[in-house]
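TL;DR need structure tokens for one chain.
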Amino acid sequence: MDAKQLQLKEKLESLLRDTSLVAAELQALNQGKGIPHYDDIELPAHDVGKRLSRAIQMERAREVAASELKGTRCPDCRQQCKVEIEVRNVHSMDGPIELTEPVAHCRRCRRSFFPSA
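>> reply
TL;DR here they are.
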């Protein structure tokens, strides 16, 4: 593992610790006094995890789509094609997200395709 990866992993661990402290504090405020059932701890924690997962999915999809903006060749006629970014709503295993994806349009073949496919 190189220095950049190690630095990013350490930063992620620090941010996750901070996030867990804030989420636990919010839970305590929402639940009030008394001893909560474990489900009252686990389910809100799982919801925070799903929110984080969706945010990561959307960010990573944006990064991948942006890397494809340079253009690509049509898989049929090999003409250079313009790539545009489109956003569509999809339902991931962790809930709804806005998926950003590159779509190329070949004017000669009159078709659209996904450059990474």
